[in-house]
Predict the structure.
Amino acid sequence: MTCEEGDLHGRTSYRTLADYNADMATLAKQRPNIVKQFELPHTTLEGKTVRGIEIGRDVHTAEDGRPVFAIMGLHHAREWPSGELTMEFAYDLVTNYGTSERITNLLDKVRVLVIPVTNPDGFQKSINDGLLLDLREVDDGGTVSILGTPGNTYKRKNCRMIDGHRPLAGECALASSNGDFGVGIDADLGVVHFGHDRDDDAGRRRRQVPLARQPFDPPLRHGPAVRGARGGADALEDVHRRPVVPGRPAFDVVRRARTTTA
């Protein structure tokens, strides 16, 4: 699909889980010298494999001490743009390696790990239901359309239905998420700013408007969010200037995956 306004290679719609996996396989096939697929060592609650790609010069060689930059999307199932940004970043690197002096120089110095879908269980439920019915035009994505949308379009978490237990076959798909309103397994607990003080530009103490009554309470009102982050080549340039820190847990899991997957 091509168009005048779209992402780097012409898409105008959100990817599904199958699309992400296919795109990563395509990049690895197109540029095998700089792209390698890998799998994380543990499957999801529903048994899905979490897939990613590593991008860099001589990507199939053993670790050589280069810094590692990891970018992951879709921790929260309903935040679809986070996966798109991650995947398009990979396309940008792979497409421009060898032609862009800046990107080529970076990938010669840094190994990049791209995991566009960190939560495939939740994302698959959200995207499948969300592509069937979109009620945002009712109130521009406000409370009415969120609460009125059936299924798991606004699902935030993974498919842990009962703490400490794996879900039964089909259990997660049959459940319905209310977009974090009220209490329940999918409530957005403990991650909101709940009225802390801060200084304004003049140094005066001001009270923040609370999103929840107290810590770990459900938020009073919380809809889908898209959070921005500094990334792209600027972030890579920061990384390759820093020393390697061995044994960091976040990278240990990925390191094991990279060494066990062709």
